[in-house]
Amino acid sequence: MITTEMIVLIAFISRFSLDRQLTDLKDEISQKQDIITYNQNIEITFRQTQDALNKIKVLLDLQPKPINAIQSLHTLLPPGTYFQNLSINNGKITAQVTSLTVQSFSQFLLNVNATKTIKNVEIGTIDKATSLGIQYTMEADLAGYIKTKK
Q: Is 32 exposed, middle or buried (0-12, 13-18, 19+ CB in 10 A)?
């Protein structure tokens, strides 16, 4: 009988201890839920920004670098040919070109047609100025450029 009363007394005392632990756990859970609720908008904004940055990185990795296109075009220029204006926009190359001689003009056209970095080359207006040489416009597309929908 004394053993039974001791067991009941121990169960009674442990009940208070367990109730206190339960209350502490409920308070801790409530505090953590408040923190999560408070930071939820920040988390959503962070994830959206991170997703947008990942999409931008993928798009930038797919696009050829303009500096590579400029270097490639520079290597195509024979002596006596130079760009007056050069524009690279959305995978489209537009240039005002001047060739001092007919040979440099024809060599430039051969070089442009032989390269794989640009395609769909169109030579526009050709003007034979006596002091400046041959001036002409050129339009072409960058090979490998993936046009994105706007």
A: exposed
Contact 109, 84 (CB under 8 A): no
Helix %, strand %, coil % of the chain (to 5): 55, 25, 15
What is the reported pTM?
0.52
Residues 59-73: tens digit of each pLDDT: 777 765 666 777 778
Contact 102, 134 (CB under 8 A): yes
Residue range 119-126: average pLDDT? 86
Close Cβ partners of 123 (under 8 Å, ≥ 6 residues apart):
109, 136, 137, 138
CA proximity to 80, closest of 112, 110, 105: 105
